[in-house]
Design a protein that fits this description.
Putative auxin conjugate hydrolase; 32% helix; elongated; 128 residues; mainly alpha
Length: 128
């Protein structure tokens, strides 16, 4: 339909991304996306095909910190920064390829931030 609201197009291309905390969940989600899209198209008497561009944008496994490195990092960070300055975070749905390294060697991914005394919220990790 382009930019018009009252035009029904012959075809539509929809794109997006999806993420999961494990490869198993990722594969289940991938299967479910295909089932839902094809099922909804069928309900509307339409045809749908689902393509995942895994060649251009491969699956990155979840970045999960090594437990021993986590313990070591916590000890060192508390000693250097003070216990009150070390915060644990809930898992994030970020897109990160650090996990590729972790498939070869144990790894530890963390965020390091700072803020001025007047700032209530620190700047984004991708800010200049």
């Amino acid at each position: 339909g382009g930019g018009a609201f009252n035009v029904i197009p012959d075809s539509v291309i929809i794109g997006g991304t999806f993420r999961a905390f494990s490869k198993e969940s990722f594969m289940q989600l991938k299967q479910r996306i295909e089932e839902v899209i094809i099922g909804q198209a069928t309900v509307q008497r339409c045809n749908a095909t689902v393509e995942f561009s895994s060649k251009d944008k491969p699956f990155f496994p979840a970045t999960i910190n090594d437990k021993e490195l986590h313990k070591h990092f916590q000890e060192v960070a508390r000693e250097v920064l003070g216990a009150s300055n070390v915060k644990n975070m809930l898992p994030l749905m970020g897109s990160e390829d650090f996990s590729v390294y972790q498939e070869v060697i144990p790894g530890y991914f963390y965020f390091l931030g700072m803020k001025g005394e007047l700032d209530k919220k620190p700047a984004s990790v991708h800010s200049p």
